[in-house]
Amino acid sequence: PKIVLHAPNGALFTVDAQIGASVMETAVKHGVPGIVAECGGALSCATCHIYVAEAYIDLTGRADDFEDEMLDDTVADRKPNSRLSCQIRMTAALDGLEADIAPEQ
Ligand code: FES
């Protein structure tokens, strides 16, 4: 499945994800700028903040309680479509997933 990411510098990246890989892992692997992912996906840094495009929110599901708390500590403004990208695992149904990377991590 493909992921379309809008980097903070305005560049658009369309990258191939493996099923089961997280959005964070996929972005880092492809050198997409803007995701820091300090904790490597352990859900303890909140530096993998993205804004999921409206059309995909139902497909990605919502943040669980712990992620929800972590989202209160992001550097960039939290929005209703904020997610930590290490917590979204790719499925075939998520093909085309589009998101903006938060301007600051
Ligand atoms: Fe640290 Fe997502 S990479 S919370």
From TrEMBL:
All copies of the 2Fe-2S ferredoxin-type domain together span: 1-105
User: One GO cellular component from the entry?
Assistant: cytosol
Q: Which CDD domains match?
A: fer2
Alphabetic keyword roster = 2Fe-2S, Iron, Iron-sulfur, Metal-binding
Cofactor dependency: [2Fe-2S] cluster
InterPro entries membership: 2Fe-2S_ferredoxin-like_sf, 2Fe-2S_ferredoxin-type, Adrenodoxin-like, Adrenodoxin_Fe-S_BS, Beta-grasp_dom_sf
Which biological processes are named by the entry's GO terms?
P450-containing electron transport chain
- Pfam families attached to this UniProt entry: Fer2
Coiled coil feature spans: none
Enumerate the GO terms in the molecular function aspect: 2 iron, 2 sulfur cluster binding; electron transfer activity; metal ion binding
SUPFAM superfamilies per UniProt: 2Fe-2S ferredoxin-like
Q: Does the keyword Iron apply?
A: yes
Keyword Transferase included in the entry's annotation: no
Q: What is the similarity comment for this entry?
A: Belongs to the adrenodoxin/putidaredoxin family.
Q: What is this protein called?
A: (2Fe-2S)-binding protein
The organism is Cryobacterium glaciale
